[in-house]
Amino acid sequence: MASGTAAGGWRIIKTLGHKMVKLHPINGFAAETTSALVILAATGLGIPVSTTHNISAAIMGVGSARRFNAIKWNIVQRMVWAWILTIPVTGALAYGFVRLIHGSR
Length: 105
Prior knowledge:
Elements: H1 2-20, H2 25-45, H3 51-66, H4 73-103
Helix pairs in contact: 2-3
């Protein structure tokens, strides 16, 4: 996870903070505060939540509060498709690796 964050972290930050919607410092503060409160509430209730999905939704909320069309929805659509495809693709990769390891014995 650390290498993934190191390799793609700045790209994610740039996409969320500049490409999806142009954020100002006060907008970033509002999004981060809201995201932190939701994560704390979910943790207190024992509900697992994705921090990435959470902050992305908070940033979309901040952008929508300014103007609904301030958000570049084509970027949001690409993010959602990436989230949807992540689970089956990683499942298929894990299956392939297990088959490869067991086949090499």
